[in-house]
Design a protein that fits this description.
Rudment_hybrid_motif (chains A, B); globular; homodimer; 384 residues; alpha+beta; five-stranded parallel β-sheet; D-amino Acid Aminotransferase, Chain A, domain 1; Dna Ligase, domain 1; 11 helices
């Protein structure tokens, strides 16, 4: 098979932590890889076979990179799609396909996609410019409060703001955006769907994002979600419907809200390995990174069931710390059973920067969840 | 902690498959690594931070390499111990310690170690030269048949021969050697013991090497061994006794025979990650490579229990094939559930060369064993 020989080259756009974890799998199968990232210090720089420094948003850089590989994939969506499209037209295998990326990259387009395909999602209005919103509120077309989201480049929580009163609009960029109804949800769930080049599809179990009661920030990703099996089935069905219409190749992580009335609403999707699937490295028969590689290379998809219960805790930079990173109390968490830290290898920490994650696995979910809390209370990502 | 910062450097002597799998763990924890290997195509070359080409048996190369790292470990025993000893005397942390390596590197010394410490092992006689053996047979000091083993450099089955009649001695090198009584064993077992710099010790479950009924070659490594729990306990106790006296730091893989009378006899040991522990990547809470890193860095040792049953199949080069390697029917084995191939990344295959391994995991051991057989019957390592 060509992938397992030396005349095949896999290209990965983006050299961050997701790419780094993907590289464990390409190394395991001795697949030749070439990675491009804007940073010379990218976590992927070692462990890939070739590294190129270049901007993922630059047409020429992406186009040139793509010409030198056999299959091209991404670890981040913010890439130059025009270049990918040209490569695709020239016959290059680009996974996810650019059509999927175009739908996802613009949040207004993504929301319209859901309504077009009768996929439940929070009601929203699209605006060509933020400045149009105030009029719409005044003439009764839009109710406060709502969630303002810029249509483009909303990666990692930027470009999102809760608007409770008109003054909250001040300072927002005057760009294409959506105003989305605030959902009073009881759970945030996610399902990872894998789809290979031959159309085979599998789903991972539904996971639950547990929020901090006050900070309103995801604290734990829990697999399987501690929800009614019927709700889980509904979430899986909806994720499969999104996948079917999205016609992605590779993974699709579908984030959803479970409302107080047990409705499932799709929030957003990512066409790649995802934070909500990191638990799979330790807990699943086939981890999400291996699954992505299987999918884009047209290999049979692996078993998505879990061996044991898994809980994932993100390691983010502590507030008040900027500079050379130190992982405080690492030894203490290594003393706890079933605990695996992953350090992404970013040299500099800053408040809330994703610096790593810790997976806790156990036969007993309640015990894993308890240990996860201890981990979270123990380890600190600070500067020297 | 120093290991998780950029001013710590771990040195690994040997850049083969064991080193490669160790590097997944150093990458996971972002530990800076420097590797030396004689081959410019060593599987470790990518994924380590620094690679040096050099002979592991060369005093100057090893000494110079060691001076540039903070902790020095090995992935193969055949290294220049004099250089390691000098480094150790100068205060360098060398794990396993050279004393352990000296005991192990010479098979006669290793056997004497067992008898000195009342560790059960097959009876043997040491000879300064192979040429002395014939006399010993003639004057009744040694009975045929026996297993001839050269004292030095017996790695990977070389330097071992079953001697059934005097003529079998012809062609053997005239070197220091042992003649060991042939053991009529019903199982070959192994236990991996981890011991960290602080003296903490843990053991992995007893594994069983299942032999091909005719070829007398290990076909499967099975965890846990399908043996009487009392025999397993005895094997673990003996492995712990070897570990205690060996005073190794890091892993010690203890290979043993279970005789027809359920006696346990130590065969040989390896002071590093071992083929008999590869199953742990997919099956154990803490895989053997992470455990070795924990041990040599003085970190708390991880949980050695298994999440699921594991069976490992070695991928060796097929007979009659020498040249650029091809993994035939890879796709078919990826279709089977719970199957994870590991391809070491050696470009050239030759008969019986270790080219990779496949782990099969399942909740049910009998099912894992069945799938393992299918894997073995399906995949072929051939040349182009």
């Amino acid at each position: 098979m060509q992938f397992f020989s030396s005349d095949f080259k896999l290209g990965i756009l983006g050299g961050g932590q997701l790419g780094k974890m993907m590289l464990y799998e390409t190394r395991k199968w001795d697949i030749y890889t070439k990675v491009m990232d804007a940073s010379a210090d990218a976590p992927c720089k070692i462990a890939c076979n070739e590294f190129v420094q270049g901007s993922l948003m630059d047409f020429d850089a992406v186009y040139q990179f793509g010409q030198d590989v056999d299959v091209l994939t991404i670890e981040i969506e913010n890439v130059n799609i025009d270049a990918l499209e040209k490569l695709e037209h020239e016959g290059k295998k680009v996974y996810p396909p650019t059509k999927t990326l175009r739908t996802i990259q613009n949040k207004a387009t993504q929301k319209l996609f859901y309504t077009d395909h009768e996929i439940p999602t929070a009601p929203f209005t699209r605006f060509a410019y933020t400045s149009e919103i105030e009029d719409s509120i005044h003439n009764g077309g839009l109710q406060l409060p709502f969630v303002w989201k810029s249509a483009q480049f909303g990666y990692d929580g930027q470009g999102v703001k809760v608007v409770r009163k008109i003054e909250d609009l001040q300072g927002l960029p005057n760009v294409e955006c959506i105003a989305e109804r605030m959902i009073d949800f009881k759970n945030e769930l996610a399902v990872i769907v894998a789809r290979n080049t031959k159309g085979e599809v599998v789903t991972y179990p539904v996971v639950e994002m547990e929020f901090h009661p006050e900070a309103n920030q995801v604290e734990y990703v829990i697999c399987p979600a501690r929800i009614d099996p019927k709700v889980a089935e509904k979430a899986r069905d909806i994720a499969l419907k999104v996948s079917e219409h999205m016609k992605h190749i590779g993974l699709l992580a579908v984030e959803m809200f479970q409302t107080k009335e047990d409705q499932i609403l799709v929030n957003e999707v990512a066409p790649r390995p995802h934070n909500s699937g990191h638990y799979s490295i330790e807990a699943s028969y086939t981890n999400q990174f291996e699954q992505h590689i299987r999918a884009i290379l047209g290999l049979p998809l692996g078993k998505t069931e879990s061996k044991v219960a898994g809980v994932m805790v993100n390691l983010v930079g502590a507030e008040g710390h900027t500079g050379d990173v130190v992982y405080q109390n690492m030894e203490q968490i290594l003393e706890m059973e079933g605990v695996t830290p992953h350090i992404y290898g970013k040299r500099q920490t800053r408040p809330f920067r994703k610096m790593g994650h810790v997976t806790i696995v156990d036969e007993d979910m309640a015990h894993a969840r308890e240990v996860a809390q201890k981990v979270k209370e123990t380890i600190k990502v600070i500067s020297e």
